[in-house]
Each structure stands twice: as C-alpha cells, then as structure tokens.
C-alpha cells in the first residue's frame, strides 16, 4: 500500500501502473546498503527535475544537489521523466542553454 504523498500528484493506481514500476517487479530483492562516501563535485552542475516524475523523485535531485556546491536545480512544473525530449514547454531547454552559455 502506497500513501498518497508517495505518488502525488498521481493516484497509487497510476503510479503502480507506470511501466517503470512494473519493471522493478522483476528485479531481485536486495538489502539497502549504506551510501558510499562521495567527494563533493567542484564543477558546475545542472540538475533538471520534473515535479511529476515517478521514476526519479525530486527528493533525489535535492540529495544530489547537496554534493554539488556549484550546482543548480531547475524544477520543471508539470514535467515527468526525460525532460530533454518530452517537456511540452521550454523551461528545461532554456535552463540548459543558460547553463552551457554561462
């Protein structure tokens, strides 16, 4: 059973019916391991995250941002996974353009 906050803005049925979730059913079970120690990144980093991504939740992007002092997180409203080729608007592409052009 999934709590509503785990799948918002989707219903639990939608989340479970997602192809990504179905793929996970075939993975072997394993214990959670401790996160390895990571060195903070010294280079500029751009993280794009859709606020409706069921595959890589926004919380994961925020965790990665903590390891990138020169990082920037752009949250694309209404976007799901693969923003670079599925976003309906231009916010993600504009963020990449600004990032690459300094």
What features would you describe in this structure?
This protein is an alpha+beta fold and 102 residues long. The protein has a single domain (4-27, 42-100), classed as Rossmann fold. The chain has helices spanning 4-7, 12-17, 19-24, 58-65, 83-86, 91-100, and strands spanning 45-50, 71-76.
Helices and strands in order:
Layout: H1 4-7, H2 12-17, H3 19-24, E1 45-50, H4 58-65, E2 71-76, H5 83-86, H6 91-100
Parallel strand pairs: 1-2
Note the main attributes of this structure.
102 residues; alpha+beta; Rossmann fold; 6 helices; 37% helix; Esterase; AB_hydrolase_fold
The CATH architecture name reads 3-Layer(aba) Sandwich
Strand content range: 5-15%
* Measured distance between first and last alpha carbons: 45 Å
Shape field: globular
The radius of gyration is: 16 Å
What is the residue-averaged pLDDT?
84
Secondary structure tally, helices: 6
Tally of discrete structural domains: 1
Just give the CATH class: Alpha Beta
- What is the ordering of alpha helices and beta strands? HHHEHEHH
Weakly predicted, low-confidence segments: none
Query: Could you estimate the helical fraction of the residues in percent?
Result: 25-40%
Structural class, judged by helices and strands?
Answer: alpha+beta
CATH fold title = Rossmann fold
Please summarize the sheet with the most strands: 2 strands, parallel
* Largest sheet strand order: 1-2
DSSP strand count = 2
